[in-house]
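Side project, low priority. Logging it here so it doesn't get lost.
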Amino acid sequence: MLAGCLSALVLGGMFAGQTETVAAPAGPPPLKLDLAGEWQFAMDPGDQGIDQGWFRRDLEGRIELPASMAERGLGEDIRVDTPWTGSIVDRSFFTDPRYAPYRQPGRIK
């Protein structure tokens, strides 16, 4: 159950686009929690998982961490127009002919 709750919190927050700044507590450094292993997950493109209580049930998807969705062959294919949490500030990726091979479907770098 802990893994399911953590997966819902970690992946739910990540896909919901939620960000939160938390001040580090005073005192000894925080304990580290190794997240390696198999996790349950569900993609939530409609951002409904929290409202519908997905964290209360087993999720059908499985992923072995550490890894990304792309590394595990999960999720949508990466495209030039994929929305990112960061941004490419060097426009030459989109315009320079030397990067053209890396803008092609299946070859995005």
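Brief comment: Strands lie at 37-41, 61-65.
Revisit when time allows.
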